Amino acid sequence: MGAGRYWTEYEPVIEPRSVTVVGYEALARFRKPDGSPVPASSMFALLHADPALLARVELELKRHQIENRPADTELFVNLDPDSWFHSKPADAGELLGLLKRGGRTVVEVIENMDAADALVGRDLVTTLKARGLSVALDDLGATNGLFSFEALEQADVFKFERSFLRRLGDRRKAIVQAFVRMAHETGARTVMEGVETEADLDLAVALEMDLVQGHLFRDRSVVVGR
Prior knowledge:
This protein is α/β, with parallel strands linked by helices. The chain is 40% helix and 24% strand.
């Protein structure tokens, strides 16, 4: 990718009771040659059509995100199992080395949309854990997400996807609460994403979430490379 075509936004990860920043999630941002923004979802959809390119871009992004991370805080970075699966051995080794040298880093394994990809995701979780890295399962509750008991057993962090905030009936709330209890009983942490209002923050506290993220705290973001 050409210089100046991407940057990193470090979105704050907040302890919801004290409303203090305890870490950041590194989010890739992209622009066209004319400077106009490109949604990250659109960019990654295009990259998935060329898995080898996806793997190379992922390595470059992770290098930028880790080398420019805010000091003395925990860093959450996303890793797509497809990019891992299609990485050359040398690139995969470099990526693991970057993550290991990155200090307090949690690797978020992005949920996938079919069973074959879910198996790749499970294997990625196992590889990361074997290297002593902390692992988060991203987007729990997503409509088209999949997860395995093996991945759940190994995860250090469970992240709940934002759309459940807008469709949290009694039954779904009970399921989320059961996940939170399970996480705490096994020593894992929970994160609620998509917190946009004070009411969302109050809900996170009521659900006993450990951490939150979202637009409500956008003014605390750190931007590098724009």
